[in-house]
Each structure stands twice: as structure tokens, then as C-alpha cells.
Amino acid sequence: MCTSSQIIGSLLVLSVLEIGLGLSSVAVGAVTFARVRTRTDPPPQLGDSSPVWSGACFLICGVCGIFCAKKKSGLIMILFSACCICGLIGGILNIQFLRALTKRSSLHLASLSLACIGICGCTISTWLTCRLASYEQRRMFLEREHSLHHSHEMTEKVNEQGVVATLKV
Q1: Residue 157, domain member (yes or no)
Q2: 155-165 burial by CB neighbour count: b if 16+ within 10 A, else e?
Q3: Which residues are CB-contacts of 129 (< 8 A; sequence separation ≥ 6)?
Q4: SS3 33
Q5: How many domains does the chain contain in total?
Q6: Is the pTM of this model over 0.90?
Q7: Closest Cα partner for 18 from 141, 114, 135?
């Protein structure tokens, strides 16, 4: 079973990967869109700018992943999971829009590859976040149980001392 530090380390690595994929996808999408806008032969199509949007989703997912790894609160884990799901949706839509394009180039192949890697990263990040949430929930339960057990022992000691004090009087 993975420890919390291994899960956090994996989340950090995946988050940095998602940031890199997001920046790369935005750059490839911007270059593709600039090329399409300069030529007039085929008109711009819907999928020409989709790598920019999926890249933005991957970028946001990566930033939230770093926050999640640094501060393991429940709300940030939920936010990160939601961002990963948005990254999944953005990547899937990017692939669908790129598949519909009539004229394909090497930039479209790069966009498809980045989207596939981003989708895999978002899926693994979501799974790791669920594992981290489960680990943190178990840790908090054990801390609470230990705290209750300790307070119960202290109550018994006070009662024993109270009984002893009444016997001496």
C-alpha cells in the first residue's frame, strides 16, 4: 500500500506534467490557429482552436494539483478532482473536434498526442486524489479514536484518584 508521501509525490509529478502539457497544448493550438487565420484556402474550422481550450483545462488541473499536494484539505481535493474531470472533458472534446477537421497537419497530430497524454494524466490524478482522500480520512479517524481513548483513560485516572481521596478522608 502506498504511503501518503508517495501519493503526494506522484501527484506533484503528475501536476507538473499537466502544467507542461497545458502550456504545450496552448502553444500548439495558438500556432495552429495563427496558421489557419493567415491562409484563406480552407476556412477556419471549429477544431482549430480546441487545443488552446484543452490546454487551459490541463493547466488549471496542474496548478490545482500542486495546491492539493501542498495542502491536503478536503475542499482542495474536491476542487482538484473537479478540475481533473474538466481536464478529461476538455481533452476528449479536443480529440473529437480534431477528428472532425478536414485538413490535418503535423500540428494536429501533436495536439492529439498531447490531449491523449493529458487525459491519461487527469485520470491517474483523479485516482490518486481518491487514494489520498481515503488515506487522510483513515488517518483522521485513527487520530480521533486515539484522542477519545486517551481522554477515557484520563477520566478513569481522575475517578481512581477521586475514589482514593474519599477513602483517605
Answers
A1: no
A2: eeeeeeeeeee
A3: 11, 68, 77, 80, 81, 84
A4: helix
A5: 1
A6: no
A7: 114
- The parent domain of residue 55 ranges over 4-144
CB of 128 closer than 8 Å to CB of 14:
yes
Residue pair 61/84 in contact by the 8 Å Cβ criterion: yes
Cα separation values, 88 from 70, 117, 148, Å: 23, 10, 42
Q: List, for residues 12-57, the tens digit of each pLDDT value.
A: 999 999 999 999 999 998 888 888 777 766 666 767 778 889 999 9
> Which CATH number goes with the domain that contains 49?
1.20.120
What is the identity of the amino acid at 143? E
**Which of 91, 72, 92 lies closest to 22, judged by CA?**
91
Location of C-alpha cell 490557429: 33
169 within some domain: no
* pLDDT (tens digit per residue) in 61-116: 999 999 888 887 888 888 999 999 999 999 999 898 888 776 777 888 888 899 99
**CA 119/CA 89 separation, integer angstroms:** 8
